[in-house]
Amino acid sequence: RRSELERLARALATLEARDVPPASAAAKAAAILGESLGVRYGADVEGRSRDETLRLAREAGAGEETVEEARRNLESLERIAFAPATPGAASEAIGAARAFVERMARETA
């Protein structure tokens, strides 16, 4: 699981560095963050909504603090994905998501 989380963190770092439209980058980052929660907690989150993903992570053992941080990150990315945003705002939100995934990787055996 740790190596998979590290791979997903690298994918987020690549999105930060690439010249991708903010909405597209944020949507991809939200999907990667959701996938990361599934990997970390062994939950099948593919194709699930944000709320379903968070519920499954919580049921699989994610603490309330982790779930709330994930929710904040996902909401931020979703706002950028569905509303006009600057590249800087997208980069900041993706960077926060990357830091969250990197921390999950460090905490995973």
Features:
109 residues; mainly alpha; globular; 0% strand
Describe this protein's structure.
- This protein is mostly helical and 109 residues long.
- It has helices spanning 2-17, 22-41, 50-59, 64-82, 87-107.
Rg over alpha carbons: 13 Å
Class derived from helix and strand content: mainly alpha
Overall spatial form: globular
Low-confidence segments: none
Q: Mean of the pLDDT scores?
A: 93
> Which sequence of SSEs, written as H and E, runs from N to C?
HHHHH
Q: In percent terms, what proportion of residues is strand?
A: under 5%
- Annotation field: number of helices: 5
Q: What is the CA-CA span between the terminal residues?
A: 8 Å
| Helix proportion range | over 70%
Major sheet summary line = none
Query: How many β-strand runs?
Result: 0
How are the elements arranged and paired?
Elements (H helix, E strand, L loop, with lengths): L1 H16 L4 H20 L8 H10 L4 H19 L4 H21 L2
Helix pairs in contact: 1-2, 1-5, 2-3, 2-4, 2-5, 3-4, 4-5
In short:
This protein is mainly alpha-helical and 109 residues long.
